[in-house]
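A favour, since you know our structure tokens better than I do. Just paste the record in under my message, thanks.
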Amino acid sequence: MGLLIRDDRQMKALTGLSQTQFDHVLPVFNDLYQAAQQHTYENGVASGTRRRKPGGGSKGKLPTMADKLQFVLYYYKTYPTFDVLGQQFEMARSKANENLHKLSPMLYDTLVHLELMPYRVFATPEDLKAALHGVDRLLIDATERAYHRSTDGTKQREHYSGKKKNDPPKG
């Protein structure tokens, strides 16, 4: 069954990509998937545990590369439970979990290869400035973090922010 996508709007709603973007990502995803399959095959032959050639055996519920890519994109766009994901793609929840964990690294490698992954770590402020080239305003969302409080009342008063209650803690 998989995803029955009627138009570009629905494609974006279910996968986060337009059909054009999906068509751009698919060949790279396919190449990386085939390379991973070949690597697994060669390791299996070398260890003597491999019985079939790549492509042998049953085809499963995600027979095409487009189905595999839609499956993993759908999961990351909607974050359903594995029960729901399995129902949507006509597979058991354990197979949905197995397929997701098999395909996620390939999607990650695809996005890295296409230079579509966001930057997560910057070594210097200059790296941050280069990544934000052309951005006029940067908003930072911060949350309050827990602070290990001293048992000494005097030290507690020194670090008290005044946010939780009207009065400082009594020591």
